[in-house]
Write a structure and sequence with these properties.
Elements: H1 20-23, H2 29-37, H3 42-48, H4 50-59, H5 62-75, H6 80-86, E1 88-90, E2 96-98, H7 101-150, H8 157-185, H9 188-216, H10 223-230, H11 234-242, H12 250-255, H13 259-270, H14 274-294, H15 306-324, H16 327-332, H17 334-340, H18 345-372, H19 375-396, H20 403-422, H21 424-435, H22 441-467, H23 478-496, H24 505-513, H25 528-538
Antiparallel strand pairs: 1-2
Domain Major facilitator superfamily (MFS) profile: 55-501
Keywords: Membrane, Transmembrane, Transmembrane helix, Transport
Subcellular location: Membrane
C-alpha cells in the first residue's frame, strides 16, 4: 500500500507541499508507489494509518482463541473436577480420578486436526466471501464449537471431542485470516508489526488461559471447567459486533472488480487524499496485473508450481523450524522443570503463568526490532540462541540429582521463552504472510497454518514419550534432540529465509521471479528498469 504522503523524515506536516509529479516523473507507478511506501517510519505510519493499524489488531483478536484453546486443553487435565467427570476412579492411585491416556492425547490434539482443515479451507472461503466474510464464518463456527463443549455432560467424552474439533476448525481459519488481512491492509512500515501481533494475541490467549484455570481449577463443581470454556464466547461475539464497521481488504475488492469500493476503503484508511488514493489503487491494480502475467490461475496447485513452490516452502518451513527449536518441549514442560527444581506444585504453576507473561513482553519487543533489524537477522539469530540453550539444557540434565543443574534448567526455560517470543515465534507469522504472492496469499498462509497445526500435534504426541519417567525418561536430555534439529534448521534458514523488510509486494514478486538468492534480498538493488521491464512483459 502506498503512503498518502511523501513524508519528510522530520516534518510530517510539510508532506503535502511536496511535488510528487516532479519527483517521480521518470518512474513507473510501481516504482513511485514503492518510493512513497518507504518514506514513512513505523511511528509516522502509525500516526497516518492509525485506522488501518486499529483494524489489523482487531482482526488478530481471533488468534487469542488459538492460544487460549491450546493452553486450556492441557491445563484442564490438572483440574480434579474435570478428571472426575471425564475420567475414572482408580483406587490403586491413592483413590484419585484418572483421565485415560488415549483421551488425554485426543483432547490435546483434536483442535490441531480441526485447525489443519480450517487453515486449508481459508483460501476458498476468503477468496469467495472476502476477508471479513471468512472471519464472520469463523465466529459462527467457533460459537457453535464452544457451545458444544460448554453443554457437554459428564462422561460424554466424544461430545467434548466433537466440540473441540469444531472450534479447532475456526481457530485455524482465525490465524490464517488474520495474517492475510494484516499483510494486505497494513502500510509497508507497519506490516511487520501487525503480522507479528498475531503471535502476541496467541501469547495473550495462553496467559489468559493460565490465569482462568488458576482461578477456577480448585472448584469442585462442573463450572471449574465449564467457565473456562464459556469465556471463549467473548471474543467471537466482539468480532461479530465489529465486523460491519471493519474495512474489507482493498486487494480482494480489486480482484472482484469492485474498484470504487476499493478506492473508498483506501481513502478511509489513509485519511482521504484523492491523488494518493489513486496511486495506491494503481499500485494494487499493477501488482495484480503483474502477477497475472506469471500465472493466470489461482488454485492450491499453483502454490506448488514454479517459483511459488519456493514461496510456499518458506511459508511452511518457518513453522517447522519453530517446532524443531523445541518450543513444545521447553514451554510445555516448563512447570515440570520447576517442580524438579524443588518448587511446590502451586508455585510451579505460578511460575508457568510467569513464563507466558515473559512471552508477552518478548513479543512486544518485536514491534521495535522487526523493522529496526529485519526479519532474516532476527529469525536466524534467535534460532541460533535457542539452539545453544537447548544443548545447554541437555548437558545440565546429564548429572543425576544435581539440584543446581535443575535450578539452571528451570531458569533457562524463562530465558528460552523470552528469546523465542522476540524472534522465531512472531517472525514466523511475519515471514509466511510476506513471502506469499498477493494472488495466492490466502491459500499459502492456509497451507502454512496446516503445517503449523500438524507439527504441533505431532510434537504434543511425541514429547511426553520422550520426557516422562514411565517412557523414555530422557527428561532434559531431550534438549540434545531438539538442539540437533534446530542446528540443522539453522543451516536451512541461512540459505532460504529472505529479508522482506522494506520490500513492497511487487518488489518481492520480481525478486522471486528472478530467483534472487534469499540471503541477497536485503541488499538487492531494485532499479527503475526492473519495474519498466516487468510492465513491458505484462503488456
Amino acid at each position: 500500500m502506498a503512503n498518502p504522503e511523501k513524508v519528510d523524515p522530520t516534518h510530517v506536516e510539510d508532506a503535502a507541499s511536496l511535488d510528487k509529479g516532479q519527483q517521480y516523473a521518470n518512474l513507473t507507478a510501481l516504482a513511485q508507489a514503492a518510493a512513497t511506501d518507504k518514506s514513512l517510519s513505523a511511528f509516522q505510519a502509525a500516526r497516518v494509518y492509525w485506522k488501518a493499524t486499529f483494524w489489523c489488531l482487531f482482526m488478530c483478536m481471533g488468534a487469542l482463541l488459538w492460544g487460549y484453546d491450546s493452553q486450556v486443553s492441557g491445563g484442564l487435565l490438572s483440574v480434579p473436577s474435570f478428571r472426575r467427570d471425564f475420567g475414572y476412579y482408580d483406587p490403586s492411585d491413592s483413590g484419585s480420578y484418572v483421565l485415560a491416556a488415549r483421551w488425554q492425547s485426543a483432547f490435546n490434539s483434536i483442535s490441531s486436526v480441526g485447525g489443519m482443515f480450517g487453515g486449508l479451507s481459508l483460501g476458498y472461503v476468503s477468496d469467495k466471501f472476502g476477508r471479513r466474510g471468512a472471519v464472520a464464518l469463523c465466529c459462527c463456527v467457533s460459537i457453535a464449537g464452544i457451545l458444544i463443549q460448554f453443554f457437554t455432560y459428564p462422561h460424554k467424552n466424544a461430545q467434548l471431542l466433537i466440540g473441540k474439533l469444531v472450534n479447532g476448525y475456526a481457530l485455524g481459519m482465525y490465524v490464517s485470516g488474520a495474517s492475510s488481512y494484516c499483510a494486505e491492509v497494513s502500510p509497508l512500515a507497519l506490516r511487520g508489526v501487525t503480522t507479528s501481533s498475531v503471535n502476541l494475541w496467541i501469547d495473550l490467549g495462553q496467559f489468559m488461559s493460565n490465569g482462568v484455570i488458576k482461578g477456577t481449577g480448585t472448584w469442585t463443581s462442573a463450572y471449574a471447567y465449564r467457565l473456562p470454556f464459556a469465556l471463549q464466547w467473548i471474543f467471537p461475539v466482539l468480532l461479530l459486533a465489529g465486523l460491519p464497521f471493519a474495512p474489507e481488504s482493498p486487494w480482494w475488492l480489486v480482484r472482484k472488480g469492485r474498484t470504487a469500493d476499493a478506492r473508498g476503503v483506501l481513502a478511509r484508511l489513509s485519511g482521504g487524499g484523492a491523488a494518493d488514493v489513486d496511486l495506491q489503487l494503481q499500485q494494487i491494480q499493477e501488482t495484480i496485473a503483474l502477477e497475472e502475467t506469471y500465472a493466470a490461475n489461482s488454485t492450491y496447485g499453483d502454490c506448488f508450481r514454479g517459483v511459488n513452490l519456493r514461496r510456499t516452502m518458506i511459508a511452511c518451513m518457518v513453522f517447522v523450524l519453530q517446532q524443531a527449536a523445541g518450543v513444545v518441549f521447553v514451554l510445555g514442560f516448563s512447570t515440570y522443570f520447576f517442580e524438579l527444581a524443588g518448587f511446590a506444585d502451586s508455585k510451579a504453576f505460578d511460575l508457568g503463568v510467569g513464563v507466558t507473561a515473559i512471552g508477552v513482553v518478548g513479543n512486544l519487543c518485536t514491534f521495535y526490532t522487526v523493522n529496526h533489524y529485519g526479519r532474516r537477522f532476527i529469525f536466524n539469530w534467535t534460532l541460533f540462541a535457542c539452539t545453544i540453550i537447548l544443548l545447554i539444557i541437555g548437558f545440565l540434565a546429564i548429572p543425576e540429582n544435581n539440584q543446581n543443574a535443575k535450578w539452571a534448567i528451570a531458569a533457562l526455560t524463562l530465558v528460552y521463552n523470552f528469546i523465542y517470543q522476540t524472534g522465531i515465534g512472531p517472525l514466523g507469522y511475519v515471514i509466511f504472510a510476506e513471502v506469499s504472492s498477493a494472488k495466492l496469499r490466502s491459500k499459502t498462509v492456509g497451507i502454512g497454518i496446516l503445517v503449523n497445526s500438524l507439527c504441533g500435534m505431532i510434537m504434543n504426541i511425541v514429547d511426553p514419550y520422550l520426557v516422562n519417567p514411565d517412557e523414555a525418561n530422557l527428561g532434559g536430555k531431550v534438549g540434545f534432540i531438539f538442539g540437533g534439529l534446530a542446528a540443522l534448521g539453522l543451516v536451512w534458514a541461512y540459505f532460504y529465509i529472505p529479508e522482506t523488510k522494506n520490500r513492497t509486494i511487487d518488489e518481492l514478486d520480481v525478486m522471486f521471479e528472478r530467483k534472487v538468492a534469499p540471503r541477497q534480498f536485503g541488499t538487492y538493488k531494485m532499479e527503475d528498469e526492473d519495474m519498466i521491464q516487468e510492465e513491458v512483459r505484462k503488456q
